[in-house]
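ok trying this again, last paste got cut off
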Amino acid sequence: MTLSLLDWRRRVAGLYSAARAVRHPEAAWHLWREGRDELFATHPESPLPPAARERFGGLPFAPYDAALRLEVALAPAPPLRLQLPTEGDGPVPLHRIGTAELGAAGVVDVWWLGGYGGGVFLPLRDGSAGQGTYGGGRYLLDTIKGADLGGSSERLVVDLNFAYHPSCAYDPRWSCPLAPEGNRVDVPVVAGEQLPPGGWYR
C-alpha cells in the first residue's frame, strides 16, 4: 500500500506538471481532467469505493471559464496558526502566510501546511457547498501533494476551474482538513469539480 500511495502522489504531481507545461489554460485543464478520470477509475489508491468505481463515468465539472484563471499576489496578514482536526491523522498544523483576492469570490487566507517540507494550502468553501459541491469545500492548491499550478516568487497561479474535492467527499473512510473560517465565502463559484446527482455516498 505504501508504494501504491507513492505512485498515486507521483502521478498526481505529474498531471500538474504536465498542465503547467501547456500554454493554453483550457487545454491544460482538459489534460488534467482526463488524467484524474483515469486515476479515479483504475488506480488502487482511488478515493472512490469499489462500488462507485464500477459505475464511474468521469468526475463532473462546470464548463471552463477563462476569466477564473488568476495570478494573485499575496497580501500581508497578521500571523495565525491553526490546528485542523482530522479523524484519522490527528491535527494538521496551518500557518497563515497571507491573503489572496479571488475575483468575485473575494479575499481568502493562504496557508502554509506544516509537516516535513510543508507546502501551500488553499482550500475554498463557497456558496455552492452542500448543494452542487461538497459541503466541506474544495481545494485549489495543495502543493505538498503536488497540486500546484505554478507562478513566481511574487505570485501564485490560482485557477478556480481546477477546484477539486478532497478525498472525504467520495467516501467517509477518508479524513481531510476542511476550509477554515478565512476560506469560507458566501458567493457561489460556478467552476471546478461538481457533485453528481445524489453525491458519492450512495
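PB: full thing came through this time. Helices lie at 2-21, 25-42, 50-54.
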